[in-house]
Amino acid sequence: MTLTNHGAATAVFSGRPFDKRGREGCARDTRTDPLDPCLQCTLGDLAFCNPLPPDELERLMAIQSSVRFAPPETLFNEGDPALYLLSPVSGTVKTYKLMADGRRQITGFFFRGDLFGFSANGAYGYTAEAVTPVTLCRFPLVKLEQLFPGAPVLARSVLQRTLAKLANFHEQMLLLGRKSAPEKLASFLLSLSMRAQERGDPASPVLIPMGRADVADYLGLTIETVSRTLSKFRVQGLVELPNPSTITLCDRGALRAIADGL
Q: How high is the pLDDT of residue 38?
């Protein structure tokens, strides 16, 4: 067990090579360490390593490790050297930037199977914090880049994730810059629903692991506006609120129309 320099995160397993039988017949059968994340991984097609051929997978797993954080521990701070790409196996992470006056803009929420930690200049451009207890696969950036010349599928997978993040950035710019409060909240709920489906979870009810303050800081609204708009959606029959961390989408068509400004 080791401690990182960002709180009490515990490094629970260091990756080691798979045997020569390939992804389906090796690690999940022959690795016996009870803390090995590959033995417990339920990501399936969501896993960063899933599309890799056995030889590339073996090399990737040789540099992989697993870490755990409890909320509200910090994974890394804005300006820290960008050392790792990270992918949650379970739990939720938020990323954010702070202004000089203390105001916060949340830039993203990351769930199991997502990949984050990209950097253009060698330093993280945002802070990452655990929203819930989270277990992550961790890949050292320098060693990962060294694999690319001989691992084209791995390189393509990282490129695709990078392009997807860029596309999400443009959607976030539209959300913050041009949409009203109801349009923002409807877009957010539908986005969480879509991402849940992509993970193999139900489209509704939608689990909301983050608090109302986090939602407000992501959408560029006040907590009061988020609560008031959500209550309005409930009165209109668009959603139900069985508990603070769950929202049932009752009329997706109407929510889509609101999100699109119709």
A: 62
